[in-house]
Amino acid sequence: MAHAGSCAFDDCIWYSDFVTIPGEPLVNKEAHRTFNVKTQSGDSDWSRKNPWRAPGTAPIFGSGCGVYGGRQEFVIDSSGNLLGVHLAGKDGANLPAKEPTVWPQGSVQEVAWAITANHGGGYSYRLCPKTSNITEECFQQHVLRFHGDKQWLVYGNMTQMGDPIGSFLPRIELPLVRVTEGTYPAGSEWARNPIPSCEMFSQAECAGLPQQEFITCAQAASGYDVVQCPPGMVQFPEPLPGLSGHVPFWRSSLDKDTPQWSNSVASSKNAGDPPISRGFPFSIADLVHIPQDLPEGQYLLSWRWDCEQSSQVWQNCADIRIVNAVNGTTPTANLQEERESSTATVSARVPLFLMPCLLCMGAFKAFLEIW
């Protein structure tokens, strides 16, 4: 989880862009919403067709592991270079497999993701056996349930005055907000994104603008470049003081030549040593139940983040091996030890295989009209 939300090595560019729900919004409760939370209907309900308003129903591109660039168009990587069009649209499920993380049947395991750009909404974790066709429909048949009522922030390679401090910072405990009403498959468990974005002004004021102007306006409405939201200017209450923002920035211990999202942004490119990273400096860790009756074998774990601010679904996959609980570790004998071990070894299927765990992130690329 060291890279946190920096989008190092382009690991945040796997998603589906411009996708909307086919029916009416089903997630309307203020406690489950993340943008424009006090509006449930009418013309001012500008997020009503975005994926989080009926989680799991928006169609996606590819197999459920994300599509590189979100669509079949030119893509700019995190170094600011234009990639060949042949890479756009690549399905994450077709990347080479990694050494799988081993999960015993009936165990509780830790998974984590990180935010580059905070589009609100919420997410779920799903499994699909590799013996099946890897499809979104397969993942939807095996949605995992969350364990407990807590989640944690785990800081990455943040630095202070040039010295790394992320590994010395404690895990920050937050309440888990489950959402099961209005989800697909019916009753499946999703978790609301716990970090509120900013509300500098209403995004409704951006309606009707040409696409590029709309994106710039929406960025400004959400507090782009603000380290944390000004007091009272948040989409919903902060879980703890200071935990808010849209695309904050921080100094990391990444080498200045490491490709990451901030290298594509003119205002922060090559800015200082250590370099500036954009996105959030922590990952969001959750515990999930592994069903006792899940057959042994090789699986892909899919993370799906349905956004509320934008018409996007972000996805990523990791290689998992399910083993018999008798031959594996005791499901709940030492949960803290399990959490540390599991998070350290879950590997995302991303280019260059440089992520130490399932870190699945959203990128905010305005100049690409991908936001």
* Category by helix and strand content: mainly beta
Count of β-strands: 18
Sheet-strand content, in percent, reads 15-25%
Q: What string gives the helices and strands in order? A: EEEEEEEHEEEEEEHEEEEEH
Tell me the number of structural domains: 1
Spans of at least 5 consecutive residues whose pLDDT stays below 50 are: 259-271, 330-371
> What is the number of helices?
3
Average pLDDT taken over every residue: 80
**Sheet bearing the most strands, described?**
8 strands, mixed
Shape field: globular
Distance between the termini: 23 Å
* Radius of gyration over all CA atoms, rounded: 19 Å
Helix content: under 10%
Describe this structure in words.
With 371 residues, the protein is mostly beta strands. Helix content is 8%, strand content 23%. The protein has one domain. It has helices at residues 136-140, 211-222, 335-345; strands at residues 14-17, 67-68, 75-76, 82-83, 101-104, 108-114, 122-129, 150-155, 159-160, 163-164, 172-175, 178-179, 190-192, 249-251, 276-278, 282-289, 297-306, 312-323. The strands form five sheets. Strands 1, 2, 5, 7, 12, 13, 17 and 18 form an eight-stranded mixed beta sheet that branches. Strands 6-16-8-11 form a four-stranded antiparallel beta sheet, with helices on one face. A hairpin with a 5-residue loop joins strand 3 (75-76) and strand 4 (82-83).
